[in-house]
Amino acid sequence: MTDGSILGDLTVLDVSHEVPAAYCTKLLAALGARVIKVEPPSGDPLRAQGPFKDDLPNPETSGTFLYLNTAKQSVTLDPATPSGQALLAQLIAGADVLVEDFPPGTLAGWGLGFRVLAERDPGLICCAITPFGQDGPYRDYLLTEIIAQALGGLMYTIGLPEREPLKIGGSPALHNAGIAAFTAIMAAIWQRDLTGEGQQIDVSIQEATAFTQISSSLLAAWTGEPHGRRPSPMVAAQDGWVTLGLEMGVAADIWPRICELIGRPDLAEDARFSTTAYRRENRDAFNEIVDEWVRGQSKEAIYHRLQAMRTIAGYVATVEDLYANAHLRERGFFRELDHPVAGPARYPGMPFRIGDFPAVEARAPLLGEHNRAVYAGELGLAAAEIVQLYERGVL
Amino acid sequence: MSANASPRRALDRVRILDLSQVAIGPYTTLLLASLGAQVIKLESHTRGDTSRGPVTPVTATQLSLYPENDPGARPWNRTARYNQRNRGKLSVTANFATPGGKALVKRLVAVSDALVENFRASVLDRQGLGWEALRQVNPRLIYLKLSSQGATGPERDYGSLGSTLEQTAGIASVTGYTDGLPLMTNETYPDPVAAILGTGALIAGLRAVRQTGQGQFIDLSQREATVGLLGEAMMDFALNGRVAAPTGNRHPTMAPHGIFPCMGNSDQMEGNREQGTGKSGEQPNPQSAIRNPQSNDRWIAIAVQNDAQWQALRAAMGEPVWSQDERFATILGRTRHQDELEAQLARWTAGFDADELMHRLQRDGVPAGAVLDGATVVRDPQLVARGWFEQVTPTEVGRPYPMATPPWRMSGSAYAPLLPAPLLGEQNDLVFREILGLSEAEYEQYQRDGVISTEARW
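Structure tokens for the assembled complex are given below, as produced in the milestone run.
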């Protein structure tokens, strides 16, 4: 620890193009690691991905890039050129952790494979995040979010029984693969602190996704029946959707109070609903009975009233509801960060807090913002050399 | 576990006291165990981990938790979920509602590096076993509190399951067909995600302790961890005030992009598939844009990222006349005419086996993946080649089941198959007598007082 942060003594080199590696190094940066993002001269492909501020495409205003690259530095180099590869080798020499997401074998093809790098620096931690891992028959197959959810066994259960399987919105599987890489790197750092030795980490996005289906594969083997798509348990409130959640974990003495709350104290005596297990089996009948009570109120009112009874009720929060949520506001979850091109915006904050160590919060870097500081200041390149590299399109 | 266990793993010599239950906590400590930590799972025999199921199962849903619907003599050692999530741990029992049980928890805290729990926010505080009390016992303790809503704030005592958390964390609001009805994963998706994150957070905490000598309280809100997955949608609101809604299987900049029907695959669990899907498969839904004419529930995901991949897909299809339509030549055109594009493509995919079509399209450079269900994912050639699922025979079950391994491979911390999940209280003797050093008389007194017992009574 050099600056009061947990990873303040470490430099992480992020040579990546996709969401998983970017989210991984965002978490490392929030814990204080110095993260240098290496971008091609045209910019990280994520800079070309929306949503853009005011819907105007601009490499400095991609919401995806801005969110995923908080508190990092940016340098540019073209790794397809020999000069670019030489610079990359120098940057790696100054790093404790390398995170990359090239197709398997790419770095080795440039003479920067793990074996070579480990020989030069036995303490180096190399983490590769790829669609299917570094080996196996699908090693060179292509993957996007929807392919991950399909081949991870995740999306088969999502959606309605009579319709096609449905993807979770956004790119949660890619983010989750980044979390897996983050955690493996933390374990490797802990081990290196003890032994001085680095190691190679192989994260497969397919496997990280398969880890998040925790019932399907298990229950298919256990019961002989695949876990399938099911009708939605949600009921419509005045302004959106809620799940009452009365078929799990409701204490027996609470049940009559819930019946009173919904204006049907008689239901406390109804055998169809007397236990959580029976309420699960007769959920549709119960939802029909409470339909009027639910429709008469806002989703959040129902959520708070049922949670006050120590249930697991839920309401469908939109992104707007999340930003307006008093609880998240009081916890200081959202952080306003200003950006010279995109302007100020409220960003979702660090997803965990460690007592005495506030997360490091800072805006994403401009493209090549740290070229001078890193190439001149640290690698010791002369001004003329840097100009030449720019002119040749390497930077 | 023991110091000479081979191979060497990252968290050898780290001891975790695990008071967690259900999913997020047990998954966190499962991953910690896989990294070599010694995990002591502590439950009360009067109130065990709810994944152990009821002591006396009654309803059909409850009976379905057991292999062949048979709860056996000790059902609490036999549920699928308990056995999946608790491999590689030691099980001890202490009723921590009693003074004796609290004393045992504190003695274990004194010899542990970290504690993991996922009760509602103030439950352990009320038991006198919260962070403020336990840091007095062990000033170097990492206390990882995994909770639905976080340890502070007006909703801190609210509870959830993964499924209802998908709603309050915004995931459900962007998941659904284009008719707008939000849907859930029918998994408990936020649980494993937050568990992977919690594992990394705990290790970060261990490093903080090593640097400062001071224990740390880690507050992980599952809701916040899940919102963290929604960067694009959150930022679209932050930058543009736009509220994301479900878009089905479509993508803003890729087309075609979706799920398309395929033929049945004769060698795969025919009976089960009919059982699982036959009833609903025969009810056509007039709203459904993409029907599976085979009624067999086999599908392929196809995601065309650019024009080159579209050309490759056209070539794979043999350049049918419809695909030469100029409206489909550019991404803009394909996006604008998606309904027609998808209907045409679905007619073509329906003639293929999903796995064969995936391999064929991937060889031609088109991102494609068969939609795997719980049975087929276990046989996926890639996961099989990498040995990702392992066969585990739970102690009181007696036949092997495939179980997930960690979502990473580490060259310096090789994964070794974990021992099956422990029986309730299986390591009472080892932990209380050998690790804590209780005398015979003390141990027997705790048993007489009903603090330690292996007979489930909940």
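Chain A touches chain B through 155 residues (CB under 8 Å). Chain A is about 40% helix and 15% strand. Further analysis is deferred to the final report.
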